[in-house]
Amino acid sequence: MLHELEGQGVLLDALAAEVGKELDPFDLLLHVAYDQPALTRRERAQRVRKRNVFTQYGPVARKVLDALLDKYADQGITTLESDDVLRLQPISQLGSPAELVRSFGGRPQYRGALQALARELYAPPAA
């Protein structure tokens, strides 16, 4: 969807600079198009941490998820979607990519955890 918008001439980086906050593209579009209050990426990451939703994972996997939340807050969702994210600092200090994937139980479980993380990041606030 982001590539389609850019293909239509919507320059998200320029729009983000004008708004002046570290917003996820989702929040940026909601804010500009629908005048919705915008959450910064850091605020979204903090909401996920407060909900404590990753208790089913072991200690190493939880550290990986916590580091991924920091990466999201600093760099956005596209970093989390990268196959190289487990090679980036400080995540790589937790172990090799293969070791980190094993901490989730394997590649399918790791991918599932990433999908769950994305769902939690974009979940509506609890009532």
Verbal overview:
This protein is mostly helical and 127 residues long. It has 2 domains: 33 residues, no CATH class; 82 residues. The protein is globular.
Summarize the structure.
Residues 1-122 form the EcoEI R protein C-terminal domain. 62% of the residues lie in helices and 0% in strands.
Question: Could you list some keywords that capture this structure?
Answer:
8 helices; mainly alpha; DNA binding; 127 residues; 2 domains; single chain; Type I restriction enzyme, R subunit; globular
Radius of gyration: 16 Å
Percent helix: 55-70%
Gross morphology is globular
Structural class: mainly alpha
How are helices and strands ordered from N to C? Answer: HHHHHHHH
Q: Segments where pLDDT lies below 50 for 5+ residues?
A: none
Number of domains: 2
Instruction: State the separation between the terminal residues, measured CA to CA.
Output: 29 Å
Largest sheet, strands/sense/barrel? none
Strand content: under 5%
Report the total helices. 8
Per DSSP E runs of 2 or more residues, the count of β-strands stands at: 0
Mean pLDDT: 85
GO molecular function: catalytic activity; DNA binding
Organism: Oryzisolibacter propanilivorax
Protein name: Type I restriction enzyme, R subunit
GO biological process, one term: DNA modification
